Predict the structure.
Amino acid sequence: MIRARGLTKQFTVKRERVDAVTDLDLDVERGELVAFLGPNGAGKSTSLRMLTTLLPPTSGTAEVAGYNVLSDPAQVRRRIGYIGQGNSAGHAQRVRDELLSQGAFYGMTRAGAAARADDLLESLDLAPLAKRAVTALSGGQRRRLDIALGLIHSPEILFLDEPSTGLDPQSRANLWQHILELRRTHGTTIFLTTHYLDEADQFAERILVMDHGRVIADDTATALKSTLAGDVITLGFESEADAAAARTTVERFTGAAPSVASPTALAVTVPDGDRVLPRVVRSLDTLATAALRQPTLDDVFLSLTGRSLREESATTTPAEPTAEKVDA
């Protein structure tokens, strides 16, 4: 459903070249749910804009739903839904009317668009706001309307750029319920960027990690956490002497050199920590406490880049270049 080879985008900002995306190779099969992770400015949104025909690549090729994004952009747009980071609804429109107009743009019958609009309004908790003007909506309500606009035509491929940003937990849950139902009933392919690591971990079949415009990892969440982060076993002792004496035993049973977590505690990173921990516990008579922490996707990012994705996402780092900010 998505195939990219050498996809590259360069901008010129204040007469200096910015490499936003470099040599992106990508294959997404029909029905897959793939998550793009990376800090602000990593190139995720630029990649989505190229794949959705909103931004021409500097070089490379891409096909979406079997059509070339440069030579057949209209065919690509017929088959995709795109929910960007900005608000897309017309300010002067009423909520339900905006959905009906969007359905008409995609060639839906008025009855079909009306039925689909009412279903989306209900599932995204917008039904009480159906006759309200877009300008009267809160930020979270506008975000839910953007999502409804992207889903109105039940697209073959759904591109989501930070879809749940600004949503409360209930709205996030409702959004994901609808996305997963759309995928289950229609086989929709989902490609999204997100800073909510729990979403990527729970729902995505594949995780792509991007940094400085390049994809630096591509695998399942389980495989990435196992191979790049590993489980952390922390062992506590009554004294510094006991901790020091246990180092050799811990290394022998785990196959990894432990680090000093505190004067009376050792920490060791291993794969399959739940299998290793019982053996280590049985081998140490002086052990006082033992804890196992399984890795997160943030640990994966930290292992790959040396910094935390959560910390990066919380900063005020400028977003990727846009057409308003640069000379293409």
About this structure: The longest helix spans residues 169-186. Residues 39 and 311 are 9 Å apart (CA to CA).
